[in-house]
# Entry
Amino acid sequence: MTDTSGEQQTVAQATTLHFTSTFPVPSPMVCQGDKVANCEFFKQQWEDYEVATGLEKRDAKIRLATLRSVMGKECMQIFMNLKLTVEERKDIEICIGALEAHFKPKRNVIYERYKFNLCSQNAEELVLPANPESTPVQQ
# Structure
């Protein structure tokens, strides 16, 4: 006779280690178009997914593997080329922060001042307060 209780216990332990959920997986990160909005949308989806599935309480390796598997091919290629150390690649918060830093544009103050200083007011344009209803315009 075989020991079926030992086999059943092993199977029961194996099933508790697997992660299953009916909650929809986040859609892959879109790396074209409005990258900032796409990154914020993906991050929000990811945070909701982690909370809804209980993934946030899991081991960092599992969380990172899940993140990398749902981020999509383009985002994964970008992620692989980020300048992160081996230790930083093991921390999910650092990885998400590095992706955000990559997709959010750096502000060029000199260029923005240049664009602002190019503005000119035409003779027929009025200077109005931020809230036009707050003060009447005198003509």
Notes: The chain is about 55% helix and 0% strand. The radius of gyration is 26 Å. Residues 43 and 96 are 8 Å apart (CA to CA).
